[in-house]
Amino acid sequence: MSKILVTGGTGFIGSHTVVELHKAGYTPVIVDNLSNSSVKILDQIEKIIGVKPAFHQFDLCDVAQVNAFIAANTDISGIIHFAASKAVGESVQDPLKYYHNNFFSLINLLEAYRKKPINFVFSSSCTVYGEPDVLPVNEAAPVKRATSPYGNTKQIAEEILEETAAAYDNYQVIALRYFNPVGAHESALIGELPIGVPQNLLPFITQTAIGKREKLTVFGDDYDTPDGSAIRDYIHVVDLAKAHVAAIQLLEKGNPNGSYDVFNVGTGNGYSVLEAIAAFEKASGQQLNYVIGPRREGDIIKVWGDVTKSTNELGWKAELGIDEMMSSAWAWEKYLSENPIQ
């Protein structure tokens, strides 16, 4: 079985991707510094797939440790690179943290494989589109000036990867531009596990519903949208995980589009924040305590993706809808209330 390095593999998307890689016959190997995740997720993964994945704890910004790891693991054929700081709001407040962590980790990995063939799947973001001119936005849309340092790191990282793949013939790269991952595994054994105050909408919703938080703040209700709240393309994390497996499989076969390619990973549907809240209330039977607050710096108004290319060329399409997203996230929150992981 092919060994796939999953950086940030104990995190939200990483842990679900480890499960899907195993299901597809791969051997995932995790590297994570646990800065925004728990080592206990390894036990949770083991409960799902029956084996505990290989795990190495170190910071990918440490070039010596990266090189030592690569030298000791010569049978890795692919990398799925999640490890990065990822909160829009925090990046506005602390941009240097984001530029340091997100660039050094990526460059150290690429340098370590300068002379070795490698299939590389990069965790990118729809934030590269900024505020799109046309919706749904497709991969040919212009990459606009980022509205946050986080978004800027994704834009520049894509440029680094495209130029690296063009300059050296050993890199085969796919960048997956995620929309908004939500939900949890159907077992309710893994899901989003934010450290401290959540930065994303859905864990704030579920933590408010369970009583961990007094109220949810909706950042702005005066946007140019039908109900005034921002619109996003929410995608179930299991569907997103499967997209990474599809990307690795395409690279193994040889991507006819060349050594660098990008794909949107979303559902193609947009839901407003208030619609997401209503969907959660319906799926969970819980009434949410929420208030309207001011707009949050760095947020865009509305974005959802055209996923035609992913369907036709990546051979992947989202299968789970908003009801499954909300019900699985609620099942995970209830599991956590009885089985604390942190």
From TrEMBL:
A single GO cellular-component term on record: cytosol
SUPFAM superfamilies associated with the record: NAD(P)-binding Rossmann-fold domains
UniProt keyword list: Carbohydrate metabolism, Isomerase, NAD
Short name of one Pfam family: GDP_Man_Dehyd
GO terms assigned for molecular function: UDP-glucose 4-epimerase activity
Boundaries of every NAD(P)-binding domain copy: 5-327
Catalytic reaction list: UDP-alpha-D-glucose = UDP-alpha-D-galactose
Cofactor: NAD(+)
Pathway assignment: Carbohydrate metabolism; galactose metabolism
EC number: 5.1.3.2
Subunit structure: Homodimer.
Protein name per UniProt: UDP-glucose 4-epimerase
Organism: Sphingobacterium humi
Recorded name of the encoding gene: galE
